[in-house]
Write a structure and sequence with these properties.
Layout: H1 3-19, E1 46-52, H2 55-71, E2 75-77, E3 84-92, H3 100-125, E4 129-140, E5 144-151, H4 154-170, E6 180-186, H5 193-207, E7 213-217, E8 222-228, E9 231-237
């Protein structure tokens, strides 16, 4: 997939989500595995690879989160210190089992291959920078509210898609890649039409703000375990491999 196709696909998905009518609203079935009805984060174990944001870029995203929270409180907002763009997820309690021990075994079975892929990426791209621009805030897969990003140029897309493809070979998810920064999660309960309308209005107001441009340093890529959707533990960095 080339840059134009990738950006066009992400742009269409973004517009479809933002323009979807209130009547089309639904909550992702697995959301209750991550948060409660009251917005408390549940234990949700798994492995992932992410680009942590720089302090400067984190602050850009935090400003949008702050304005969203002022308009819509019925969300479980994540700690801005955890802001990141996921490159690729691996075994977790959604795609393996809700049994943490089974997830741990699945992680262990692929971990050497993931580390080998990281080592290859380090040799190929350790000095590279991927510029990303935000399209705006949207609800992602009816479980999270996130800031959607696209690569800024052909070169940025080429690197990002190659990195994703290399990790997809290690742990196939068979899902299209959607770069985003999660700002918060929906509550695991039905939303009244008035709440959905208010959320969509809040998103519209936030999207009228200036959208950030951020830079992902490939050398900052990390392999992490998430204990829940608000707590991440770094196992190793790209430069450790």
């Amino acid at each position: 997939m080339n840059h134009r196709m990738f950006v066009d696909r992400l742009g269409r998905q973004f517009e479809e989500e933002v323009q979807a009518p209130v009547s089309a609203w639904s909550i992702e079935a697995g959301l209750s595995n991550k948060v409660t009805r009251e917005g408390e984060f549940r234990p949700f174990f798994g492995a992932t690879s992410v680009f942590p944001l720089s302090v400067e870029d984190r602050e850009k995203c935090e400003l949008l989160q702050f304005n969203l929270a002022a308009l819509m409180r019925e969300l479980a907002f994540v700690d801005p210190a955890t802001f990141h763009i996921t490159l690729h997820s691996f075994a977790n309690m959604n795609n393996v089992s809700l049994d943490k021990q089974e997830v741990e075994r699945a992680i262990a079975s692929s971990e050497s291959d993931v580390q080998a892929a990281f080592s290859k990426i380090r040799r190929q791209y350790a000095g590279s920078v991927i510029q990303m621009r935000a399209l705006g805030v949207k609800t992602t897969w009816k479980e999270a509210v996130s800031l959607q990003f696209v690569p800024s140029s052909d070169a940025d897309s080429s690197i990002l898609l190659d990195l994703f493809a290399q990790l997809e070979e290690v742990y196939p998810l068979h899902k299209p890649y959607q770069p985003h920064v999660t700002l918060g999660y929906l509550l695991a309960r039905p939303y009244r039409d008035t709440e959905v309308f208010r959320l969509k209005e809040a998103v519209r107001e936030v999207n009228a703000m200036s959208m950030p441009v951020i830079a992902l340093q490939v050398s900052d890529l990390v392999y992490q375990y998430h204990l829940d959707m608000n707590h991440y533990v770094t196992v190793y960095t790209l430069l450790d491999t």
